Amino acid sequence: MGTVTTEEMMLNMGPQHPSTHGVLRLIVTLDGETIKKVDPVIGYLHRGTEKLAEDLNYTQIIPYTDRMDYLAAMLGNYNVVHCVETALGLEIPERAEYIRIITMELQRIASHLVWWGTFLMDIGATTPFLVAFRDRETILNFFNELSGARLTYNYMRVGGVKWDVPPGWVERVGEFVQYMKKELSNYHQLVSGNEIFLKRVIGVGTYTKEQAINYGLTGVMLRCTGVKWDLRRDEPYSIYDRFEFDVPTATEADCHSRYRLRLEEIVQSLRIVEQAVAQFPKDGDFMAKVPRVIRPPAGECYTRIESSKGELGTYIYSEGKDKPYRLKFRRPSFVNLSILPELLQGENMANTVAILGSIDIVLGEVDA
Amino acid sequence: MSTPEEKATAAAKAKEEAMRKLKERKAAAAGGTKPSASEPPAATVPEAQAEKPFSEMTPEEKAAAKAKAIAEAKAKAAAKKSGAEVPAASEPPAATVPEAQAEKPISEMTPEEKAAAKAKAIAEAKAKAAAKKSGAEVPAASEPPAATVPEAQAEKPFSEMTPEEKAAAKAKAIAEAKAKAAAKKSGAEVPAAASEPPAATVPEAQAEKPISEMTPEEKAAAKAKAIAEAKAKAAAKKSGEAAPAPAAEKPISEMTPEEKAAAKAAAVAAAKAKAAAKAKGGADTAEPAGDDDKAKAIAAAKAKAAAVAAAKAKAAAAGAAKATGGAGAGATDAAPSTPSPKQPVLDLIVKTITEKVGADAIEESYIRANSKDMPTIVVKREKWLDVATLLKNDPELDFNYVSNLLGIDYKTHMESVTYLHSLTKRHSLSVRVKTPDREDTKVPSIANLWRTADWHERESYDLLGIVYEGHPDPRRILLTDDWVGHPLRKDYVQFDEEV
């Protein structure tokens, strides 16, 4: 028998691949079915948000944050207004804080629902996608009532929110929470015990705690390694210190643990919304007294919040003018994606989609 | 500073310009001006003055603006006679007319200019008087920095005055113009400091009360103040910047560091001068009334802004805060009196670095109060890798997590800012590494210590052109590989093949 010679193959995955959740391109070097090297190419959706922001005042920047993580625009909105408010030292009215908490947590649920549906679709299950999008639609309708938009809300403002909640809105959110709590058991029944699903995710895409921290992973990507780190609990912003909730963690750090954690986070978010609905102030302002032209004091300010993807931060260097001199968004999708080449090295090609899907990236946020 | 000869020619030029402009205006009879942001500050182009805030003008521009403003005042007076009310707010240069005179310290004027200024003052008083006859609102009165208007209208919008008051106001204006001329002769630049926030109350006080109504004591006090202020200005000038008055007028954010320093110094000096004047003066002339509260508030806000800008240099900030307090403004929150809760963390970090890397590694260390008490250190570029290694590996510090990394273009230099966090010790630190200038943008890479810095540094290189030395994979990340330039740099011009 003569020796068999093989050669490595370069495979272009994306930027139009349906499983890359947008326009991510992976240049994969394959040896047979084994991945030798992965080079992610990003920037296809780079719109230069940070550059644009230098010519916008602080209120005008808010709609741009809708378009970064477009699956969690409320969190993006809050991210930037929170930084400006911190720099200004603004007091936010109670009612505005509660509206924000409810919208942010509903947004987190919606974001996780999209992830749940698309992740399962990536690995071959189509039905869960429809189930998840049905329930997500209820949340989007809530936001539609508030802001008039389904995805790009532009709802938060420096000092509060743009509009007060319509009558009966809070009560209906409360009803949805009760519905969703029960409905989640259907999610588990539908997928969580599925033999094929478990074979695809258990033990796939593992990494260590040290790797996770070294790569700056945050959110579920970090908590699945056993690190109990959630900015809502560890660096409470807004009024998160008033609510009881757990920070679920796992230790396996595989795709399955990330799946479990995200579903568990939906439960915790529902708990927070439930408490917020119960404590919701009957009246009060939904907007603080804010100067007409917002000029944060000269200097820099960095704040971070826990988005559905991880640590979402805003850095503003202000010269005391109405526009930022430099604005930088710390995007969790961007940072979390950076570990992908390491995770995929030596993996089977078929696992690429499962591992990539479990990171939960949004390309609008990766590219900014 | 230009020589007197240069100034004289510039002034002559400016006058010519103003005349031309006036003709143009008459022809066009329009208030709109052409965009002039790109105009060189030499400002031989009259449009530039209309558009530019007064504070940003060069002395030549100011002179021209003055001339123009006068012409305009006349035109307005005529317009008012015809019954149309000219909105004051839309005409910044007109409002700054008296300021314009105040602007230039007399001591800096050439004899020609002085004469011109005097003539102008008279012309202006006449123009105003004419305007008053028409009963319309005098443009200057509605302006917030009315304090800088030495005329009596600062007290009350003209339109609200009774005929008797108007007559009185007129008389006052004339008297004041005379007084001013006299003051100018004496060499003390009375209204000049009006534009300086902390000192604003001083000339205000004079504006408040016509000299003719002052008691001898008050007059003495006013004089003393004027002198003190002149001294303060001189002191401020010594601090290195050419013209403190324009510098102070500029929004702090637009100043260069040198200007800021000068402004700070000026603020402090002015406060001192004021204190001295107060000690001397008997009457409470420094207390502005009525509409001047607004002006006062603005002055206070300006002083506050100055105080905030100064926060970086603690000592200076403290001085500015004092100055603010001296000016009677409520900016007590400028400098935190209680030590930050993060101070022990910063002390520990500084101590450890000083011991293990060297005392010269840290250029600066402070806590930023308005950014969640973030401890911040400025690390010498050559030592950054050593410091980073220590920060990561020292068991007491244990900064295992890079939260954020970004570059900033400060126009004078570039900076790489790293936000570190320890998930075990639960403390944070922001580290700034400065490059000497914009061309030499090399900064040691920390991507081999924290893998997350890999993409962050690539992004910073891509968008700002900061070169991270020792980076394992120094490529662009968001833009295409053949992109020309670094878009987040302030001098970035998009490359276009067809241009």
Description:
The complex is a heterodimer of chains A (368) and B (499). By secondary structure, chain A is α+β, with helices and mostly antiparallel strands. Chain A has one domain (9-367): Cytochrome-c3 Hydrogenase, chain B. Chain A is 47% helix and 12% strand. Chain A has 15 helices and eight strands. In chain A, the strands form three sheets. Chain A has a three-stranded antiparallel sheet. Chain A has a three-stranded antiparallel sheet with strand order 6-7-8. A two-stranded antiparallel sheet of chain A has the order 4-5. Chain A is globular. Chain B is α/β, with parallel strands linked by helices and 499 residues long. In chain B, strands 1-2-5-4-3 form a five-stranded mixed sheet, with helices on one face. Chain B has a two-stranded parallel sheet with strand order 6-7. In chain B, a hairpin with a 5-residue loop joins strand 1 and strand 2 (374-379). Chain B contains 16 helices and seven strands. Chain B has helices at residues 4-28, 46-51, 59-81, 92-95, 97-103, 111-133, 163-185, 201-208, 216-238, 244-249, 257-280, 292-309, 314-326, 343-356, 384-393, 453-464; strands at 362-368, 374-379, 401-409, 414-421, 428-434, 442-444, 467-469. Chain A binds chain B through residues 42-43, 46, 48, 50-51, 86-87, 89, 211, 213-217, 227, 229, 234, 297-304, 311, 313, 315, 317-321, 325-326, 328, 330, 334-335, 338-339, 342, 367-368, and chain B through 251-254, 305, 308-309, 311-312, 368, 370-372, 374, 400-404, 406, 408-409, 417, 419, 423, 426, 430, 450-452, 454-456, 459, 463, 477-480, 487-488.
